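Title: [Solved] Fatty acid desaturase family protein 3D structure

Original question kept below for reference.
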Amino acid sequence: MKELHSFGWYAAKLKPDLPKKAFNPVPERLWGGLAYLLVTVAALMTIGIVDVNPFFYIPLSLIIGACFAALGFLGHEILHGTVVRTPWLRDFLGAVAFWPLSTGPKLWRKWHNLTHHVHTQHEEHDPDAWPTLDRIMKIRLLRWVYRLPHPVRAFFSFCSLSFQFSVHSLNMFVVYLKEFNPKKRPAVFMEAILPWVTWIALLVWVGPVKWIFMFLIPLLIANLIVMAYISTNHRLNPTTEINDPLANSLTVTVPKWVDVLHFNFSYHTEHHLFPGVSSKYYPLVKQLIKERWPERYHEMRFDKALTALWLTPRPYYNKELVDPNNGNSFGTLGHGLDPDNIKSSISEKMYNTETLVSLMTEGKKQEHAKDQ
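Solution (posted by the thread starter after getting help):
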């Protein structure tokens, strides 16, 4: 196993090779956001005003959903301070960009910037890390879910990408609201509730049929696009005690025009090394990483990464991905996972039946104790 290094260790070695301008904000990125915003408003107004067969609204719904997702990618960049640095303007623009996904800027910076980025792929402290086998076996519903055959679970897991971001964002609001200073909680609450007030007002204005095409379908599409990226960011990588982006993050490759539309969101390892650098410079960061540590760096074609997610189970056990249903184990990136030849290690399981029974029994005991 390669020695792990912190993201700061890598960044310190690469920073001298980056141009000084790479560390300056790039407000020109806002022109792309303005274009998406104008297209979104135009499409929304067209559906709202023009009365035709709802079937003809579908293309506009697809366009709105794609714009919602792209605005989310820009909002992510804005709230890292790589577009503008003035705090009030950063939060205002971030709120506008995240408005379709109904995620407030203060919550996002707490959940994503200050927690996920600091504790990436730590099995206890990263709010976005997929749970371990031990945690799954302690939850009754998940024990039942993981009795289903893997293809069935994979199908429903991919379907759930269409609402996972919205559900997880709501959960993060519940988890982190109490951690904010009491004086700031009203602002955090308002940032979370105002977008939904907008969408409910839209429902009242246009009625349920048009609302489905103006917001619900686009929201599902945006979730699907955003989560297709997010699900590949780390879920094929192992959990790590040290936040080593070259071990716990994956960069996916997409056509250049997709990178342009999505603000280089595919460069995820690079982002975890330099979250304060505009994604405009991530191709250069990638080049520098591959020159120094090519054996550590993980990149994969986007469609291949999604296929690997489909073919592998999600619970972690040590550095493996395991299937509680049949006991099969799979490697993770850097620990035996070959995306071109994904195979389970039936003869070399990282845990046995006795371990699984023990975990399930312990989980049932804890639930029984809570019920008393």
